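hey m, so remember when u said the tokens were messed up on ur end? i reran from scratch. heres the input so u can diff it against urs
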Amino acid sequence: QVQLVESGGGLVQAGGSLRLSCAASGSILSINAMGWYRQAPGKQRELVATRITYADSVKGRFTISRDNAKNTVYLQMNGLKPEDTAVYYCNADIIPWGGIRTVSYWGQGTQVTVSS
């Protein structure tokens, strides 16, 4: 079993900051890509950040980082805007123990609400 557990969401005023964390645990052989997505009410889930790309809307404000020793990926969010309000999901491409193929896993999501 592999689990991704996010934390760090909450309510913040516009201009504020939050730091999201996502820890992968369980029977993991290796972790390839890890990234963050978000889904606002009535909208499709969209990419926020991976190691090699950021959504245009968050460039210069959000920073993704990863601690390989802890199997954890972070999303530092600065200069938050009301339009950043969404459920944020962690995604990881993982090869489980005993497996040979990469499997895409999702976390349960963490709510980020930015008030104006």
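this time it looks ok to me. The mean pLDDT is 96. if urs says something different then somethings off w ur setup not the seq
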